[in-house]
Amino acid sequence: MSYPYPTRTHGTRRGRLRRAAGNTAGPTVWLFDLDNTLHDASHAIFPAINRQMTAYVARVLGCDEARASEVRVAYWQRYGATLLGMIRHHGVDAADFLRAAHDFPELARMIKVRRGLAAHLRRLPGRKILVTNAPQDYALAVLRIAGIAQYFERVVAIEQMWVHGHLRPKPDRRMLRRLLAQERIAPHRAVLVEDTLSHLKRYAGMGIGTAWVTGYLRALAPARPQALPAPAEAAVPGVTADAVLRTTLAAEDGRHAPHTAQERAVTLVAAEAQVPPAGSEGRQPPAPQAMPDSAPRVRARVVNRPAYVKVKVQSMHQLQRQRQTRSKGHDAQ
């Protein structure tokens, strides 16, 4: 599927869906992430992004794909996103790079969801809002293909993340505060459901609930682990991919780039930084971007639950069951 890239939109109507189906009763408002939370983006979509970025680098450099893969990895390790290295060293157009990296003519075949996902969302009590750094057209398409669009009252994609004239994607607190105010949601009623630990940590400080979904996390298993060094950022405590988002915005602001250019650049950074670098807080698995395209993928082994994570689950089935168990416990009291 090819989809248009984000432009600035005003108000909240564009991301508003029809009246949500399912169980919307109760005080809880669920703020769901999309990729690697509701569907398995590591299965096909993230690898496809990497392959398409490698092909783009090969075209620009006039080299073979093996060399292009090395350059892609090197730029990701040095700058936190391949795009930033390609802009700095080769003057590529961010919009053109984005378009090439996210061209999915067979998106329906790439989406992989767990059986029963729709039923679990239908039974989960409370309002449900999708909050994703992905473009809106992509997010809506994934929801439709997965058969779960009807359970969300609103989709907040990157197009709706403008605050006071600046793009503020996750994990920016200003964006989420504005969303909660728009929907008249008290922070203690909201629960963020995410695969990205750094986002959960950032928002836990606002007083919202946090649920970490680990079932779709994957790492790459290189034949020779010593062949590539870990990113330099991995050795610095507290430095995560979130810093890349802020650096990108600051750089675009410094060049007085239009808002559309900022948004396009950050969209790719967000997609490419779904998992923080190896060694970052919470021991989340190393990102697929840190290894060559030829490296095999294995399911990540995630053990620890950081203190700021209230609930750790592998799937929506577990989330729904835990919620049901807790509700029964409250009723018994």
UniProtKB/TrEMBL annotation:
Pfam family, one: Hydrolase
Region span, Disordered: 274-297, 312-333
PANTHER family reported in the protein's UniProt record: HALOACID DEHALOGENASE-LIKE HYDROLASE
Name the UniProt record assigns to this protein: Pyrimidine 5'-nucleotidase
Organism phylogeny: Bacteria, Pseudomonadati, Pseudomonadota, Betaproteobacteria, Burkholderiales
